[in-house]
């Protein structure tokens, strides 16, 4: 597969989406093909039926292949689910020689130290995200590379998840005949698709309301500060409508999409919708006011739980204020009047996030729906991974071609020796890349 092509596979609770994207000459992403299927083997973001999940993945992939007229081999997959949790942790290392400048190796050593944290049984660290660094007690350093210092310290945002759940996803992908190229945390993927750099700098909370889970990612000063996965989503709203109105799930889902509103005051008492009865039974009449009361109660619960997480991050402190407010995305963000309700509960500016930030201008309206935010984000992530690999390969070629000059140090004057050449910043391999490799190894050896 060419390097400017990538495939995102979003394994959700209600739907599985395979999306093929390519970078055009303007650096924007063109979506070549998209396939979606009903997700049958996933509950609250976690695979609970391998066979059904494999069938759903294959169906989505075949649809995307047919639309794009090409074969899919490698995919970037998102992970979410109720098993994901995050914590704050600070750690430090003491450097042997404070006369030399801090380099990548020092930071890797510090990050690897965080990986030695003792977790609950079955849990593993998925992501270690440095927040800010301290060098010899000097705080608020964004990038310590190139500085002198003996003690390097950092605050980390650590994301933890159940390793068995991640392996199960890997298993489903591999058994579908695909190659697992990368793993990404879904809230991060959605954030890349719908947030602008300015919002990430100013401070913003991204709320991705899916079918089984609601993901939260908080950014400030361009850095991710907090992530959380809340085990409720659009499905519990459908479930409540089903119970409250005594109708079947399919009808409840349609009612929610067509007539649902998060704000009960909107509907008049005399607005009624009639639902056909089962097998010759009398049709049921449901008032829209009742419908939105049921939806409102559940949505308030979800939003309040998310708001608790935003408060846990410290939004109420002056220094941590989220100036850009809240961005809602995911299928659940399409619920009418949700934006107004979220603003009412949290008092924060809110907008609906459409994943058109990096897409080519002529993209289909369907693709720019909040429903596909995660899939678009996964495609972006795959493209970024390819770009990084290409840069690394180029560097290797350059290194091989560079002739070695013996005793070059003697030729340079002392002054020239002291000033290191400014090197291009090489992106550090994220822990997710390492995790992907570990999951791949595990699957290869488990066969």
UniProtKB/TrEMBL annotation:
GO biological process: one example: FtsZ-dependent cytokinesis
Pfam families to which the protein is assigned, alphabetical: FtsA (PF14450), SHS2_FTSA (PF02491)
Gene3D superfamilies on file: 3.30.1490.110, 3.30.420.40
Keywords of this entry: Cell cycle, Cell division, Cell membrane, Membrane
Residue intervals passing through the bilayer: none
Cell membrane keyword on record: yes
Family: Belongs to the FtsA/MreB family.
Subunit and interaction comment: Self-interacts. Interacts with FtsZ.
Function according to Swiss-Prot or TrEMBL: Cell division protein that is involved in the assembly of the Z ring. May serve as a membrane anchor for the Z ring.
Listed name of the protein: Cell division protein FtsA
Gene assigned in the entry: ftsA
């Amino acid at each position: 597969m060419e390097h400017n092509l990538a495939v995102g596979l979003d394994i959700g609770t209600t739907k599985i989406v395979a999306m093929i994207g390519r970078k055009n000459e303007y650096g924007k992403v063109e979506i070549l093909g998209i396939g979606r299927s009903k997700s049958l083997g996933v509950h609250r973001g976690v695979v609970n039926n391998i066979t059904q999940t494999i069938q759903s993945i294959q169906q989505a992939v075949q649809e995307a292949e047919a639309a794009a007229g090409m074969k899919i081999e490698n995919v970037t997959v998102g992970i979410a689910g109720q098993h994901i949790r995050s914590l704050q942790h600070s750690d430090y290392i003491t450097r042997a020689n404070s006369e030399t400048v801090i380099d990548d190796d020092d930071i890797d050593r510090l990050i690897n130290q965080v990986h030695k944290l003792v977790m609950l049984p079955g849990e593993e660290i998925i992501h270690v995200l440095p927040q800010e660094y301290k060098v010899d007690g000097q705080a608020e350093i964004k990038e310590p590379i190139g500085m002198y210092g003996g003690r390097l310290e950092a605050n980390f945002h650590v994301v933890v998840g159940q390793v068995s759940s991640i392996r199960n996803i890997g298993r489903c992908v591999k058994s579908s005949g695909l190659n697992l190229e990368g793993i990404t945390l879904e809230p991060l993927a959605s954030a890349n698709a719908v947030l602008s750099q300015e919002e990430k700098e100013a401070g913003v909370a991204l709320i991705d309301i899916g079918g089984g889970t609601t993901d939260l990612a908080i950014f400030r000063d361009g850095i991710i500060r907090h992530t959380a996965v809340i085990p409720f989503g659009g499905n519990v709203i459908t479930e409540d409508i089903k119970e409250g109105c005594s109708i079947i799930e399919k009808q409840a889902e349609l009612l929610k999409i067509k007539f649902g509103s998060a704000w009960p005051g909107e509907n008049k008492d005399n607005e009624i919708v009639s639902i056909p009865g089962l097998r010759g039974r009398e049709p049921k009449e449901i008032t829209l006011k009742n419908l939105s009361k049921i939806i409102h109660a559940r949505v308030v619960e979800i939003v309040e739980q998310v708001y608790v997480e935003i408060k846990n991050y410290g939004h109420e402190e002056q220094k941590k204020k989220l100036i850009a407010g809240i961005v809602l995305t995911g299928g659940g963000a399409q619920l009418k009047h949700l934006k107004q309700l979220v603003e009412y509960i949290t008092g924060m500016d809110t907008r609906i996030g459409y994943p058109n930030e990096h897409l080519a201008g002529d993209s289909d309206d369907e693709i720019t729906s909040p429903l596909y935010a995660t899939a678009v984000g996964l495609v972006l992530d795959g493209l970024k991974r390819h770009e990084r690999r290409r840069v690394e390969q180029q560097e290797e070629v350059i290194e091989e071609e560079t002739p070695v000059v013996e005793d070059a140090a003697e030729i340079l004057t002392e002054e020239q020796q002291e000033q290191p050449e400014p090197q291009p910043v090489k992106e550090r391999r994220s822990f997710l890349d390492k995790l992907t490799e570990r999951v791949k190894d595990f699957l290869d050896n488990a066969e």
